[in-house]
Write a structure and sequence with these properties.
179 residues; mainly alpha; 54% helix
């Protein structure tokens, strides 16, 4: 996708396409770095190697063992989903007048998630965290000048927040709506 936007932007001198390519690169690299950091911290087993019903979590695993047997440690979060979500978000934010980008993108995202779970690469609980990471980096990268550091109490707009949450039993999402 980056190559397509960059090529189109360079050939047609389209600044929006070039900006989209740069933002996609930033979002994908940022998302990938954070996902890899979290995988190296959480150490969750992939479903096809699971030794427990929900996959064993080896917090802060030995990094030599991680690199020798990475499927035993790299299920959480889904980098595939995080990257795809970041990509859809950046494109949709740069082309808001094209209304079909989000619905088609989300259907593709659901297909990717289903295939990752059905092939035992990821658990269903790995998916929401990946979506949250990808969406966050997609929004940050596509709106670099609109980042606000104000507290929520000063802003009178309604706010939907989706944050990752870790529990003893696994991971989930904390969803809140402020009005």
């Amino acid at each position: 996708m980056v190559g397509l936007f960059a090529s189109y932007g360079l050939i047609t001198h389209n600044k929006r396409a070039l900006r989209t390519a740069l933002q996609l690169t930033e979002a994908i690299l940022s998302t990938g770095g954070v996902v890899q950091l979290l995988k190296h911290i959480t150490g969750r087993e992939s479903p096809f190697l699971a030794t427990t019903p929900t996959g064993y979590w080896d917090w802060f695993p030995n990094q030599i063992a991680y690199h020798k047997h990475f499927p035993q440690y790299d299920a959480m979060p889904s980098g595939h989903i995080a990257t795809a979500t970041a990509t859809i978000t950046v494109i949709a934010e740069n082309y808001p007048e094209i209304k079909w980008i989000k619905p088609v993108g989300y259907v593709i995202l659901a297909g990717i998630a289903t295939s990752l779970v059905s092939t035992s690469i990821h658990w269903w609980s790995d998916i929401p965290f990946g979506v949250a990471i990808g969406y966050s980096f997609g929004m940050i990268c596509s709106h670099p000048n609109n980042i606000s550091l104000k507290s929520g109490s000063q802003d009178k707009k309604n706010k939907l927040s989706i944050l990752p949450k870790l529990y003893r039993q696994g991971a989930g999402l904390l969803i809140s709506y402020e009005f």
